[in-house]
Write a structure and sequence with these properties.
It comes from Candidatus Magasanikbacteria bacterium RIFCSPHIGHO2_02_FULL_41_13. The chain is of the alpha+beta class. The protein has eight helices and five strands.
Length: 196
């Protein structure tokens, strides 16, 4: 654990650790379960900074296809993003039909279309139809208690880890305050090299 700065004996910045371990049966995972590096991202689909990191994450997945798995976890910042929760729920409704990552990509790629909308259900349903999802099932799943419950599990684990914002990244369980593609690549390669 690293302490940076501080007054007296109280740290002002403590490196956070993942509060809930990755669960292959529950988490949304891209990449092999045998990967040497696990990158967990706590994110909010309406967060502009999260959308800006998406090209970096896609490049990382392409650069480390055998050694990196990426885990997406919801941390909707509902106090500042009115559509954070509806978008997270839409991604989970798509997940029930096996299309989480496809909906994930559409939500980030088209964030400017829906971020300021008063009602998103029609737009999200259009996205679902474009992914060849069963429209009626998708609409029903938007209001299903277990769909919301799945989002809240991730949100609770973010709160348990003491997270305050998005995006927040963890590399192999430890918070990683990385900002650029090169910083991510260097940190990931270091873990891979250490685990040879």
């Amino acid at each position: 654990m690293a302490f940076l700065g501080g007054k007296g004996n109280k740290p002002t910045n403590v490196t956070k650790t993942l509060a809930a371990p990755v669960n292959e049966a529950v988490d949304h995972i891209k990449g092999p379960n045998t990967a040497k590096v696990t990158l967990v991202e706590y994110s909010d689909f309406q967060c502009p900074a999260c959308a800006q990191y998406e090209p970096i994450l896609r490049e990382l997945a392409s650069s480390f296809p055998n050694d990196l798995r990426i885990v997406y976890r919801h941390f909707p910042l509902i106090q500042i993003h009115a559509n954070a929760l509806p978008s997270a729920i839409a991604s989970e409704a798509a997940a029930k039909q096996g299309k989480f990552w496809e909906m994930h990509d559409i939500l980030f790629d088209r964030q400017s279309q829906w971020a300021d909308e008063v009602s998103t259900e029609s737009l999200f349903t259009d996205y679902a139809v474009s992914l060849d999802l069963d429209k009626n099932k998708f609409i029903a799943d938007l209001t299903a208690n277990d769909t919301l419950g799945r989002v809240m599990i991730d949100k609770s684990s973010a709160e348990d880890a003491g997270l305050g914002g998005t995006p927040t990244f963890f590399l192999n369980g430890t918070e990683a305050q990385l900002r650029t593609l090169e910083e991510f690549k260097t940190a990931i390669q270091k873990i891979i090299d250490t685990n040879q």
